[in-house]
## 1
Amino acid sequence: MDIKEVPEIWAEQWQAHHYEAMTEIQQKLYTPIKEGKDIIAVSPTGTGKTVAYTLPAIEKIEVKPHTQWLILAPSHELVMQIAGVVRSWLPAGLKVVGIIGSANIKRQIDNLKKKPQVIVGSPGRVLELIKQKKIKMHEVKMITLDECDQLLIREHIPTVLEIVNSAMRDRQLVMASATKLEDPMMFYRNSEIEPITIEAQAEESNANVNHLYMDVEPRDKAMLLRRISNVEDMRALVFVKDKVRMDIILEKLQYDGVAAAGLHSEVRKEDRKKFLQAFKKGELTYLVVTDVAARGLDIPDLPFVIHCDVAMDAKQYTHRSGRTGRMGKAGTVISFVNEREARTLRQYLKDLNKEAIKVRYYEGVLTDDFEHKATKHK
């Protein structure tokens, strides 16, 4: 069924969430999930995948006091983000619980005693609670793996496989990813089930996302960040390759009086929350992050993404860049590169059918070689 409009059952809440038309992935997933199909869904970051799998799944949940739907996600932030989205759509009488490894397990067990219909969790803690028989997998009818390209990296695969295999054989499995999986059939090798693959593209309005690059040597990147902090509406997620680079960049920015903070795997949970809130409020110009620390960050209307250290491959470039221009809104991606890296970047963008525009900073504005304004946020 080709859904042209929002299903009637969700129309009122759709308006309350201030959403517009359904995205391609939301249209394509609705009926197959309702029909119980096993699905591998591939759609770019920012195209509304969480809502795409949530709405039809909720329609299948019964108001019975046991867990029927389990969602796994690779990071604590993404777990809590997904739980918040699901909670905002759940009808009265249904409950969702978030389960993450850093939280108090006794409190989580108490929450599970309230018999939520939906659990969203990180793999390690979920498996721990399954082994303690606090999560009863024989009751689970649906399993969703969100950002499964990250869930199925080497460190997570054994845990995720054990969780999925602990459910009944007739459970429904939906895998959602921003990029294609290397081995999507690993769950089906000993099964007669044939999953269907559903792919969607970025919305056409993503043409509003500019992909720019600036010629700069590594030693001058902090100085360039300081200079372009004066660009109108500058508020950027700045990607670096590791914590060492982050510390160097932050020290120079803070010395120059630029409002910036950093997120990496060792940042305390309380500080992480504080920095993220300050950034969302516009109190920070830059939030400097590593790729691992950025997983699950939800920053609405983010105007800029900056690749301070160039992405390792087109897949990483896509993940990083997808933080801006979400759901078709305007955004700008800037890569700091030297001459060799510029060739690599152009190839990434060619593979993505995008154009790389070289810009420079001049009198408070980013301009191309013809001195046209390359980015101007209203």
## 2
Amino acid sequence: MRASGRRAAALVGLGVVAVAVALVPGVATLLPVEAVVAFVGNDYFLLGAFGGVALAVLGWMVARRAVGRVEQAAPPDPETVPDAPRPGERVDDLLARWPWALSAADRGYLRERLRAAAVYGERGGSRSKAAARERVEAGAWTDDPVAARFLATDASGPTVVERLRSALRGDSWTQYAARRTVRALVDGGDER
């Protein structure tokens, strides 16, 4: 038997004796406690001896743990939910930018994204996709002239007055028209 196996057997045996002394009546009378107290001289000295042994065992365990390497199983990585952008996040980001920070690609993206949303909203009735697209491209999908012109394919650009009005608000005409288009989409969805 190896040394660690003998040590474990001795600890188990000592634990069984301690449980038997504590729980089984009459076992404590089998131990020569009176003779040990008489040998030590006082029952407080006996208690001090037990405390000293307990402190020595505790010190040995702490020292062994400090110098020894403890192998433990690592818990698995927690599961995470993949992040996905919320719907409309890029449109919100483009509308929040400085007016001069919008590129031609950004303006095109805003127009196409809002055009797709308007076509989808127009299909809410009994219209086909082609009929809904024709209404949006013709500007007949809303009563708002700015939103209708923003999404129409053959419409002229903004007037000088509209450009100045949107610049005074701190927006480019594209941002101003996109906000009006979003408002028209929301109002049209509320009506349906």
